[in-house]
Amino acid sequence: MAGKVQGAERLSLVRTGPERTLPGRLLGASSEALLEHLIDNPPKVAIAREMQLGYVCFPGGSQSSYYNWRTGLIDIPEKRDSSAYVKFWARIAPKIRRAFPRGVTMHDYRPFAESIGAEAILVPNLETSSVADQTAWFRKLQAGNDLPTHIELGNEFYLGMLNDPDSMRRWPDLPATMVVTRAYTQALRPLCPAGTKFAVQAAGSEFHWTQPSQAIRPFQRRQVSWDTGLKPEPWFEAVTIHLYPDSVATLGYPHGATPALTDTFRARLFSALLGRVDAGTDRALGRLAARLPGKEIWITEWNPRGGNPDFSYDPVTPPMNMHLTARMTLAILRHPEVTASLFFMLNFAPDRPFFPLRARRARRISADGHSHCPALVQRGGHRRRVVPALCRAGGGAGGGRRRSTGVLPGGRSGPVPPEGRRDPHHPERFAPSSGGQSNPGVAASPQTGPRRDPCDGGPV
């Protein structure tokens, strides 16, 4: 930095465990080829290459449950009683179809991953595609030498696309889900390269609640029951987990609340989120590793400010997010069981991250906007260096609307989204924590030890 930030304090890191050599690949980002023109945009590909991502994924997150490998698009059978989240994706599907009339396939995506030095994690469609259909897809991928060696067995079945009737019938509980998931695994494994690893899903409930009794609602109890029922079995090698705090709920607000974005509120929120991304990450990963000894942990989605907002209400400013991302990355690195970590998400449309389906031509890259993939890596085994940095992108034609500026904790300034509106994208993604409230009006400062998670009774 050119100069010191007023009120800044020196951050001292304290060793909390034995030194270890990090794996050759570890940190990556969810790079969504169906949500924007990414893999066919040379300036964006060049930036992704500079990030030195270890992992990317295809076809993505929730859309994987509706991906049609024959068309390269998503097909969502929306019904009158479909959940709000399924209806949201049903509205997105036509936009994707218009932006990518020929679809996007793994054969298209693999060269992108290879060109940036990343390995792809493939997410087959276990939700709306049969075992026979997915087997046919894997045969085609095998013939084209397009099969990766990391297979994520579906996406967030524990959420049932947020209480969608059809999804909940298919994934009523963990035991039924494991039966179906194992059937796909047994059919797909013989087609995969030697050493391919398959990952089942954890719900990540212990990131939000320290005790099962804190999960009060049925939707919360479903996630707790899912996690406590997990057992190590020989037919899978890894387990995935998604870590998203519900930002305002860490302060005891009800889910969906939109408190006024004052300096005092942001200072309290920053302190609470520091505790959640540090102690909550330790708790969730530690208990998962103990529950599934010998299994790798893949954090295939995480973001310290929660699910991607549309900036109608986003209480976490970019400087706050950078600090939280660095802190959460350090917490992740404390757990050797974690062998893959993908920040959600690599995105070059800063103002409308779920609606970036624009023209195919490469836009001019400028400093007018920023992406939201700040956890980057410089490879080199034990010499690996974690580099939190905002990736500048998204300027040019229609891509760089500036937001108003306000004062952040510590006297710094930065973008502040409009107040008083709620995020429509994840209206019920995670229910609020039932814990207490952090000290009001106390600004957070860098800490050398574990942070206190506000849903816990003390340091973890």
Brief account:
With 460 residues, this protein is an alpha/beta fold. The protein contains 10 helices and 14 strands.
Describe this structure in words.
It is built from 10 helices and 14 strands. Helix 9 runs parallel beside helix 10. Strand 7 (about 195-200), helix 8 (about 220-230) and strand 8 form a beta-alpha-beta unit. The strands form 4 sheets. It has an 8-stranded parallel beta sheet. A two-stranded antiparallel ribbon has the order 3-4. A two-stranded antiparallel sheet has the order 11-12. The chain has a single domain (about 25-415), classed as TIM Barrel (Alpha-Beta Barrel). It has about 450 residues and is an alpha/beta fold. The two termini are about 35 Å apart. The chain is globular.
Mean pLDDT: 79
Strand count = 14
Distance between the termini: 33 Å
Top-tier CATH class: Alpha Beta
Uncertain segments are: 353-450
Please compute the radius of gyration using only Cα atoms. 21 Å
Question: Helicity range of the residues?
Answer: 25-40%
Chart the SSEs and their pairings.
Layout: E1 27-31, H1 42-51, E2 55-58, E3 67-68, E4 73-74, H2 84-99, H3 106-115, E5 119-122, H4 131-143, E6 150-152, H5 160-163, H6 165-170, H7 174-188, E7 197-201, H8 218-228, E8 238-243, H9 263-291, E9 296-302, H10 318-333, E10 338-346, E11 375-378, E12 385-388, E13 405-407, E14 413-415
Parallel strand pairs: 1-10, 2-5, 5-6, 6-7, 7-8, 8-9, 9-10
Antiparallel strand pairs: 3-4, 11-12, 13-14
Helix pairs in contact: 4-7, 9-10
